[in-house]
Amino acid sequence: MFDLLLILVQNHGRVVEKEVLLAKIWPDSFVEEGSITYNIRQLRKTLGDEFQAPIYIETVPRRGYRFVGQVDEPTASSEIESTETVPTEQVPAQETTRFSPLLLVALSAFVVLGGIGLGVWFLGSRDAEAAPILSTPFSLEKLSTDGHVYHAAVSPDGTAVVYSRRNAGKQSIWLMQVGTSENTEIVPPADVFYYGLTFSPDGKTIFFTRRESIDQDKLQASVYRESIYGGVPQKIIDDTEGWISVSPEGEKISFVRCPKGEQEYCSLWIAESFDGRNETRLLSRPWPIRIGDNRISPDGQTIAFAVGQSRTASNEFGLMEVDLRSGEERELTSEKFFNIKYLAWLPNQKDIVLTARKQPDKNFRIWRVSTSTGKASPLTDDSQSYSALSLSDDGSSLVSSRVDSNFHLNVYRTEHPDSGPMVLAKASTVNFAPNGKIVFSSARTGNEEIWSINADGSDERQLTRTPNDDVSPVVSADNKSIFFASNRTGNLQIWQMNQDGTNQTQVTQIEGGTPLAASQDGRWLYYKSAVEKTIRRVTMGDGREELVFDRPSIDSAISPDGQQVVLSESKDGEKVLTVVSAVDQSVVNNYKYADPKASVVCLVWSNDLKNLAYVLTDESETAYTLWFQTLDSRGPRKVADLHEEVFELSGLALSPDGKDIAVIQGAWIHDAMLVKGLKQ
Questions:
Q1: What is the pTM of this model?
Q2: From 347's CA, which of 180, 538, 540, 608 has a CA 20 to 30 Å away?
Q3: Same domain, 366 and 512
Q4: Same domain, 616 and 467
Q5: Burial degree of 608 (CB within 10 A; 0-12, 13-18, 19+)
Q6: Does one domain contain both 396 and 497?
Q7: 128 vs 418 pLDDT, higher one
Q8: Same domain membership, residue 477 and residue 397
Q9: Dmax over Cα atoms in the chain, in whole Å?
Q10: pLDDT classification of 680: cutoffs 50, 70, 90
Q11: Nearest CA among 183, 146, 62, 194 for reference residue 668
């Protein structure tokens, strides 16, 4: 659903494969996939999305991108997250990974990039001459069919396409001759994640961003240059996100860093393209503003860049330009978007095309922005969704990625886990009600909405119907109310409704987020804030909102009684689950992972407070296992291998009696497309 995002956006707060986003998303790292993905990872990213995203698409090591706006996001591309890094979105950044629900929707997470539907755009003969892609008859060629192509770029002369491909958990780079469809591997398979990918102006060299998957503690990627004839890639720049651009003479390369500090959350840099020397920071943005894709202008004098935040699920992403001589910045359009995944200058240097999504639209469309008037207009039909964007020098050929989401709600029985799952519905987030009924969000109608269903698949009902995103349902202890996150007011807030979907009212007013748990006495609703990623609560009486746990974390969960918080973190070089008191924030206990080399994908408490349930994914991100960790001194117990060929997992819930396990699992299908016209 993603860039990596959204891989970075529909799976807000969850990891989306780098596409991304955003990539994956930015997803922040931005996912997004960077994706999307990040991406998404891209989703990173693909969900960029926003690999990669959150970044708005945050990069998640060895997984993709998380949309932390929400990625890009991823997404997620990611994906898409997408990030908030959709390239480091797999998304990647922005930005194999679970995605943020909202990033899944948008980015839809980073991001359902469907077939190409085209809008009619009137151009004068002068513009048509400068950009044939906007005036020639539409034609579409699918460059890949296996669903594992995450990033692609067309050569300056339009005769070749370079792309990254994943197979058996490893990624490689290939070169395809457009006329003959001859494919040549130029970088062999390895345990790495690829994000940004582009050609040098002469078409003889490629530049890409890559992160070693074995380096789990390093969230950033590195920039490499490599001959199209093969050889050993040369690392030229460290600690970057997934977006890169090469100047028209080939001497400079621009890139993004996201140290995620209070004053410098993300920054735009430029350096020598041959060896990365003479790094110069051009501009920066404070937390939580993310900088995404950037493109050096055809005359080499300016850089256009995407900048904004998507944590609140609102339209706050814009398009800016910086002059390389004076450092002066200017806004290229007043139009704002939920997320911008990729940019490309048209040859006339008067216009920029970009892939972007606006709320409450569900797909990333291709837009055209006039740099002189600031007018922004969609070029494609809103029933289609796009992620990567790469143009040949003459503007006659465009390469984009198409990402389809295939995520479902599966129910396993803990007593017979090897029997495989019961597939109930297409879904992106899930939870159990105290009475055993399942509540979930699904984008099956085109909008992310709340549904309910029995664990045996009977009595399925749609509870919300809005053009916006409703996700992450939580049911009250008395089974009378359902709380959920929605961006129907323009940003992400928590809403409440009756069990049958009636009487929908807004609960939070100040800092919204995603519901986590309702207290047993019905007084409090605990939630994770959209911006800070801290744990807060709101009273059901007077609506007072207050901070409960001030340590920001994406992978965290609060106990059903609201007394303890579990975090996934690293201590002394080891991965552990840390249980902390929500009252005084003292550490209660630490529990080592069942597999020290694996990564936690989902983390929840059992209803009886006796176990922590979590899913681990191996280094290849192709195997998922469910574990129970008792809260005494005993070690973890393996409960089930999560069946089916699943590349990503975005949700986990336990039934009140512990006999049923609800899992959202599936995959993002990534393919590269060659477009020879955007007008029918």
A1: 0.63
A2: 180
A3: no
A4: yes
A5: exposed
A6: no
A7: 418
A8: no
A9: 75
A10: very low
A11: 146
Q: Which residue has the higher pLDDT, 514 or 29?
A: 514
Q: Is the peptide bond before 39 cis (omega within 30 degrees of 0)?
A: yes
Cis upstream peptide for 79 (omega within 30°):
yes
Domain-terminating residue out of 405, 424, 440: 405
Do residues 411 and 425 both lie within one domain? yes
Tell me the average pLDDT across 217-244: 89
Task: Report whether 79 contacts 1 (CB < 8 A).
Answer: no
Phi, psi at residue 103, to the nearest 5°?
-70, -35
Question: Residues near 521 by Cβ (< 8 Å), separated by ≥ 6?
Answer: 477
Domain that holds residue 547: 406-666
Which of 49-58, 395-404, 530-539 has the lowest average pLDDT?
A: 49-58
List the single range of 2-11, 252-261, 407-416, 573-582 with lowest mean pLDDT. Answer: 2-11
The number of CA neighbours under 13 Å toward the Cβ of 324 is 19
Residue 655 lies in a domain: yes
- Reported residue count of the chain is 680
Q: What is the CATH number of the domain that holds 46?
A: 2.120.10
Same domain, yes or no: 332 and 462: no
- Residues 65, 17, 625, CA angle at the centre, nearest 5°? 105
pLDDT over 70, % of the chain:
76
Mean pLDDT of the chain, nearest integer: 79
CA angle 432, 99, 475 (to 5 degrees): 20
pLDDT of residue 454: 94
Would 482 be classed as within a structural domain? yes
Listed in sequence order, the residues at least 6 apart from 326 whose beta carbon sits closer than 8 Å to its beta carbon are none
The dihedrals phi and psi of 129, each to the nearest 5 degrees, come to -65, -35
Residue type, 437: K
Q: How many CB atoms within 10 Å of residue 587?
A: 11
User: Domains in the chain: how many in total?
Assistant: 2
Block residue for tokens 């890139």: 255
φ/ψ (deg, to 5) at 419: -75, -10
Residues 509, 370 share a domain? no
Instruction: Write out the two tokens for 76.
Output: 């997620």
Q: Does one domain contain both 446 and 589?
A: yes
614 lies in a domain?
yes
Single out the residue in 383, 405, 427 at which a domain terminates: 405
Task: Let me know if residue 229 belongs to a domain.
Answer: no
Residue 477 burial by CB count (10 A; 0-12/13-18/19+): exposed, middle or buried? Answer: middle
The pair phi, psi for residue 38, each rounded to 5°, is -160, 25
